[in-house]
Design a protein that fits this description.
This protein has 385 residues and is of the alpha/beta class. The protein is 32% helix and 22% strand. The chain folds into 2 domains: 114 residues, NAD(P)-binding Rossmann-like Domain (Rossmann fold, 3-Layer(aba) Sandwich), CATH 3.40.50; 215 residues, 2-Layer Sandwich (Dihydrodipicolinate Reductase, domain 2). α4 runs parallel beside α5, α5 runs antiparallel to α9 and α7 crosses α9.
């Protein structure tokens, strides 16, 4: 059993502590944060040891650091953890800069350590069923497709949304990892990208918390459109925005030579997956409720367009799978090469939007291995399988 120390006791921490209820190899022993009140509250709630950041990095009882800090701090905390000879699993993105993430990956390899990264939603029942259908040639060769994530922005519900609208934040950094990771899992690595971004307003209004009604500055684009060419020659169009009140589009659709498929929400784990065959054929919904990471287990309160009120959320499977990989000396699925390539896509998209040119990717990666239900049941606790 590997012991996990968590750094960053914000909103997402609760999600990872819930993973301890599902997966039999997740064991939190300590937590740290620059907010001492948050550390004490988290430690008391989950019966773990409260430590400073320095203390947790130097604690010989901690094998893995779970980095849940804000994106702008991911690089520094992950680097310090790797230098302290600890494996790292980090929330998305790996860093806010490609060169920093590449340095982290090289440091992990140099020290014979594992570095893993969210998102892990592509390992869910919906993502893995879609992968299986595409791998089995059910819709033939994927030629084109599209995706969308669009809502008004995190200021609608978050009391401190500023970092989402500053350098190192924004809709592509925040939500791009879910969609790009899903696409790489299904289609393989990206070859090039052309993007266009826009900032429509210089200020936004707090809609929640003690500052409700006041305004804050917007420093970066809040809407992006993309044309993405993959190494397998598929061309995908995308739209990610913090400027849309409502919409009715599917999250992702892929079009192949033998049919089409509606990919479930890349931000979640469930389904259904919708598929159609030859021209004029009817759509068929395939449920994933019978899959261990596809069962509905939460009520969704986001209010975002086209999100089901009940969903499957098994965040933490990527961490659990990495722990199993460490113990069995194999490559994990949410690995550093995948995370680096996805960050490359994100950074190249933003570079393209600034200079209005097509940008070639600097990296590549292998598609993660499919994850079978038998393995999932192996690392799920008995009452959850």
């Amino acid at each position: 059993m590997k012991n996990i120390g968590l750094i960053g006791c914000g909103n997402i921490a609760e999600t990872y502590f819930r993973a301890q209820e599902y997966f039999n190899n997740i064991n939190f022993v300590a937590c740290a944060d620059i907010n001492l009140d948050a550390v004490k509250r988290t430690a008391d709630q989950y019966n773990i040891i409260p430590l400073s950041v320095d203390e947790i990095l130097n604690d010989k009882n901690v094998d893995i650091i779970l980095n849940l800090t804000i994106p702008q701090a991911h690089y520094e905390i992950s680097k310090r953890a790797l230098e302290a000879n600890k494996h790292v699993y980090c929330e998305k993105p790996m860093s806010v800069k490609f060169d920093e993430a590449k340095e982290l990956l090289n440091l992990a390899k140099k020290n014979s350590l594992y570095i893993g990264n969210a998102p892990d939603t592509f390992l869910g029942g919906g993502g893995q069923l879609t992968r299986n259908l595409i791998d089995n040639n059910d819709i033939g060769q994927v030629l084109t497709g599209n995706f969308i994530f669009a809502f008004p922005g995190v200021q609608e519900f978050h009391p401190s949304p500023e970092s989402w609208f500053q350098e190192g934040g924004g809709p592509v950094i925040d939500m791009g990892p879910y969609f790009f990771t899903t696409l790489v899992n299904l289609l393989g690595p990206v070859k090039n990208i052309r993007g266009r971004g826009a900032k429509f307003f210089d200020k936004r209004e707090y809609k929640a918390g003690p500052k409700k009604g006041e305004t804050f500055n917007v420093e970066i684009p809040t809407s992006y459109m993309f044309n993405i060419e993959f190494q397998n020659k598929a061309i995908i169009q995308g739209f990610i925005s913090f400027d849309v009140l409502n919409h009715k589009r599917n999250h992702m659709e892929l079009y192949g030579t033998k049919g089409s498929i509606v990919v479930p929400d890349p931000n979640m784990f469930g389904g259904p997956v919708s598929i159609s065959g030859e021209f004029g054929s009817k759509w068929r919904d395939i449920s994933v409720e019978d899959k261990p990471l596809g069962k509905t287990n939460i009520v969704n309160h986001s209010g975002r367009s086209n999100e089901a009120p009940e969903q499957a959320n098994y965040r933490g499977i990527g961490l659990a799978e990495m722990i199993d990989a460490i113990e069995n000396n194999r490559m994990h699925r949410c690995n550093g090469e995948l995370a680096l390539h996805v960050l490359d896509v994100i950074e190249c998209a933003m570079i393209s939007s600034i200079y209005k040119v097509e940008v070639e990717l600097r990296s590549s990666c292998k598609k993660p291995e499919p994850m079978h239900d038998d393995f999932v049941r192996y690392i799920l606790k008995k009452d959850k399988s």
